[in-house]
């Protein structure tokens, strides 16, 4: 069954063009989980599942699933897919590429009347991107039993409670206190994603085969000072929360630079979200809230960062009129991908004549959650200039098609393994 | 005509209680210029003017005026009043104290059938607080001819154009290209205001008589970096606009501390407003916009600050992947109050047995604008802990009443001067 790269590229391109229209108009490309545009994109995706003749369900965690049932009487399932939500002002390929690749894969299988000895499911994992509830990977965490009541009860700034939103979209948050039953039947979870880095592009490599996904930690830092008039409070009488917050931002950046330089492991830390109150030019900031995002392959480096930052905060709290609190709000551990699936991906890629590289991921992915409860692995395709989480994000549709061909070859290999 | 402090205190208290209810509910006390609550407060104030039998007009600059006409055929006018708009999450006394003091003054004059040889006007100067259009003192700048087309054409974040808002509230922005005709007739502009500092409270002084108001400069600083994925972009490959913005915030704070320490003059600088884009925890900030607020009594100190900051920015632009632009968006010059009015205020205060202090203002005021085109002066009353522009702002109603008695004594003195 020849996989026609050109034909499949144009299918992929059409679907990307469809989805890119479903964005908040004033800030392309924005399709936040549970937003109006997200619901529209879910309807669009259900329609695609329908066109492919898949049976459609939403699981307890709110994941939208299209299922290609095997003619064999089996519960075993191979999962493909990714996510269709985006960050604010994000791109058109992060997540989307994996979902559309899954559609393309199933279209190819259907058109060629290929019979599989297992069910094949395409997932839109619910809310992979970090959201206002301070968590990411809602749907895949839900599958892995990694959502707890603390997370599920959180409210966003509009007062919406996470578990209620999950229920509204068709999930059942009550059943999320343990891994979902499906995990017993998973033969393999396979995700295609853009690299979001520059290694593949720089080295002109077709396929990245992911070896590990770093731990992700998020901390909420609150700096409390005293608001006051910007004209009347003398410089030496101030407790300016933004000035103290700036000290933390500078410190976090320098510390992360130092740790990443001293170790050969992937280590990054970012303060991307900051809210200043009351945020008015004529008022000394009285309160700053910000989120530290930390990604580490090495647990030692992670701990070194946290210890050093905590010491810095203690020292500021002793010597400064502003007071700082740091709270752990999210954690996903470092995980390694399934070794057999890595080897199979390598074999598939080689057999198709694609160059490949076994590599670490910098970003977190739904597959990191799935890998805690099932055999899971993922492949990267190149993206332009390593840019992601921004409107400039770009990938060639032919590269997505190549990755889809690797997925198809994997499915064939897994089918052969299941039959033997 | 004895001025009864107790009776007038309870009148003042009632009016403060009325106005404090007119706030955005989710963030007391907030009554931003042109907002729904601001319009409600203007209606309330018109009603108060009506109750006192004043004739009501709105001038070309959108100032709401209640006029007590003299029985004499004269155009001469003494102006009292202040402003009823607030900063976001501000207080209940800044501006409001001066407007309510004016109401109380006129009530006293009316109740005692005092005839004046000049008209007495109470002004609610339009939009004294810094607003989204990047300017403050809209109404008083309008009187002084200090609004220009650049300012009047600015849009806020909802796309509202300043001049259209001025017209909507009853002004006529076309006529604001020069000082308003009223300035020829002004005998004196007198404003009562809370000190917004701690000097009067600390030294247990009843009345502050303002000698000067510092220059106010505002600069918009834009830091442009490159947004990207917080997990995949390596620490040494980043152009993080927030990290560079933090360097500026720290620098501005240290520089202002140093200049204020080295000079005996009032000198403060604040970054109170910062907008980070896209402001999401998993995205490296690509753009930061912030406003620098600068208040200086000495022009030399102001220039030293600007020159040093510009050098710092040039140096960052040469050595950093982020690029910084600084733009001058507002300026009000240093002004001195009318010397004869200062002396008269001192005489009034002394004659009533109040302790007083001739002092510099830290904050800007409508009177600074008026002083450019007419004899103008102002008095301060104490406020608790020097706090202002925050919900904790507090002043004793008896202190507002004492200040009102000084104003009344001033009116008497001015009347005597006019008659002789």
Features:
homodimer; alpha/beta; Aminopeptidase
Tally of DSSP helical segments of chain A: 12
- Fill in the CATH topology of the largest domain in chain A: Aminopeptidase
User: Domains counted in the coordinates of chain A: how many?
Assistant: 2
* Large-scale geometry of chain A: elongated
Portion in strands of chain A: 15-25%
Write down the Rg of chain A.
23 Å
- Secondary-structure-based class of chain A equals alpha/beta
Tally of DSSP β-strands of chain A: 15
Largest sheet of chain A: 9 strands, mixed
SSE arrangement of chain A, N to C:
HHEEEHEHHHEHEEEHEEEHEEHEHEH
Multimeric state: homodimer
The CATH class of the largest domain in chain A is identified as Alpha Beta
Describe this structure in words.
- Chain A contains twelve helices and 15 strands.
- The first copy, chain A, has 420 residues and is of the alpha/beta class.
- Chain A has two domains: 5-213 and 335-419, Zn peptidases (Aminopeptidase, 3-Layer(aba) Sandwich), CATH 3.40.630.10; 215-332, Alpha-Beta Plaits (2-Layer Sandwich), CATH 3.30.70.360.
- Chain A is elongated, with a radius of gyration of 23 Å.
- At the A-B interface, β8, α8, β9, β10 and β11 of A face β8, α8, β9, β10 and β11 of B.
Describe this structure in a few short sentences.
The structure is a homodimer of 420-residue chains. The first copy, chain A, is of the alpha/beta class and 420 residues long. Chain A has helices at residues 5-20, 36-51, 96-111, 138-144, 149-152, 162-168, 199-203, 241-262, 299-319, 339-351, 366-370, 397-419; strands at residues 55-58, 64-68, 77-82, 119-124, 186-194, 207-213, 215-224, 228-229, 267-277, 283-284, 287-296, 323-332, 335-336, 356-360, 376-381.
